[in-house]
Design goal:
The chain is of the alpha/beta class. It has two domains: 167 residues, 3-Layer(aba) Sandwich (D-Maltodextrin-Binding Protein, domain 2); 121 residues, Periplasmic binding protein-like II (D-Maltodextrin-Binding Protein, domain 2). The protein has 13 helices and eleven strands. The strands form two sheets. A six-stranded mixed beta sheet has the order 2-1-3-10-4-11, sandwiched between helices. Strands 7-6-8-5-9 form a five-stranded mixed beta sheet, with helices on both faces. Strand 6, helix 6 and strand 7 form a beta-alpha-beta unit. Helix 2 crosses helix 10 and helix 4 packs across helix 12. The longest helix is centred in the C-terminal third of the chain and has 22 residues. It is globular, with a radius of gyration of 21 Å.
Length: 322
């Protein structure tokens, strides 16, 4: 019997050879996880908590490098051009890996070609809160307050982040005179709303809950179709305004450079997914839902998010206003 000999694919041979040489000892040194937002941000908190659990699973330390700026694109760019060996990763977010495609005219990278989704860690519900001097108990009352006043200032964690786009979508859809005050960083945004310098802020629940519990701010609504389990009495924007387009949860996931071999991707994915699911209950109390998706689910989700947020940007006109 004659055996059919197929021609060898040099690219497949090269990938196979790389995996054979790398995987038996991967990882054999510390891994860098670039967070494209500042220290203390929701992205930073999630990166650090998850890395603490993933590190022993990989047998190496994971150190965090904060590289904020330009809606996350500065930090993301450093990973896009890094060697695809699994030692430089990015904590990508909806801002850096979806919204940026609609906002930044010429990104220094191709989101789909230059990154490989490793693991979707969490989805984070954003809360709309007002400072305690605003006399509104509901989102509808707040919009009426803004209309009667003629304007209302809200602060965000950065231009073209979800903390900016969600209030802008409310402004556009409900003819509300909301005026944006971008903050230099998240800490400044919190200071502004707590001090009463601005009326409103929209930000993931994880970071806002301590201020809600202390009475510094009042929660009006959740910008998702699901209520936050730790704040069961706070309605969703869908419930408050009757619009289904406000299921705008933030998400946070780990990415590697685009040509990272499958074996390394799978090793990292398993560690990070296991890590985040191990702290699922603790995260839920903070208004964050652990996902732990691997590339098979994360990749199609990631690809669908880019056009979805392009439509939000189009409706709000944020790109034209920049």
């Amino acid at each position: 019997m004659t055996r059919l000999m197929l021609p060898k694919d040099p690219q497949l041979e090269m990938v196979s050879d790389l995996e054979e040489r790398v995987m038996p000892r991967f990882p054999d040194r510390p891994i860098k996880l670039v967070v494209p937002f500042g220290a203390g941000s929701i992205a930073d908190i999630i990166a650090r908590r998850t890395s603490e659990k993933a590190s022993p699973l990989l047998g190496q330390s994971i150190f965090i490098e904060n590289r904020p700026g330009a809606g996350g694109s500065i930090g993301a760019a450093t990973v896009a051009t890094a060697p695809p060996d699994g030692y430089t990763l990015c904590l990508g977010t909806v801002a850096s890996h979806s919204i940026a495609a609609a906002i930044v005219p010429r990104l220094p990278y191709d989101l789909l070609a230059d990154f490989r989704p490793i693991a979707l860690l969490v989805s984070a519900w954003s809360l709309i809160v007002v400072n305690r001097s605003v006399p509104a108990q509901t989102l509808t009352e707040y919009l009426e307050y803004a209309r009667k006043k003629g304007f209302s200032l809200y602060v965000s964690g950065g231009i073209a982040t979800t903390t900016h786009l969600i209030p802008e979508l409310i402004r556009a859809r409900y003819n509300a005179p909301l005026e944006h005050v971008p903050a230099a960083d998240v800490g400044k945004a919190f200071t502004d709303v707590l001090a009463g310098t601005v009326d409103m802020m929209c930000y993931p629940a994880l970071a806002l809950q301590p201020h809600i519990q202390s009475g510094g701010v009042r929660a009006l609504a959740v910008a998702s179709q699901h209520r936050v389990s730790s704040l069961p009495d706070v309605p969703t924007v869908v419930e408050a305004l009757g619009s289904n387009e406000f299921d705008l949860s933030s998400w946070f996931g780990v990415f590697s450079p685009g040509k990272t071999p499958d074996a390394i991707v799978n090793r990292l994915s398993s560690a990070f997914a296991t890590a985040v699911l191990s702290i699922r209950d603790d995260l839920a109390k903070l208004g964050v839902e652990a996902q732990g998706w691997g590339p098979d689910r994360f990749d199609p989700f990631f690809r669908a998010e880019i056009p979805r947020w392009k439509e939000v940007v189009r409706v709000t006109g944020v790109a034209q206003a920049r």
